[in-house]
Design a protein that fits this description.
Layout (H helix, E strand, L loop, with lengths): L2 H48 L2
Length: 52
């Protein structure tokens, strides 16, 4: 393995790692948003139920 191959390999691994982290963060963000929406909807339902 030449020096160039080593550099390319390390860059590829870094890019794949960062890409994976980005995808994971975006997926987490989406889950949190949908969870927040569910909580807000439940909150609204509770408020409506509390009103006489």
């Amino acid at each position: 393995m030449t020096h160039l191959h080593y550099v390319i390999a390390s860059y590829t691994i870094t890019a794949v790692g960062l890409g994976g982290i980005l995808v994971w963060l975006l997926a987490n963000r989406h889950q949190q948003r949908s969870a927040l929406r569910r909580l807000q909807q439940n909150d609204k339902k509770c408020h409506w139920n509390k009103k006489p």
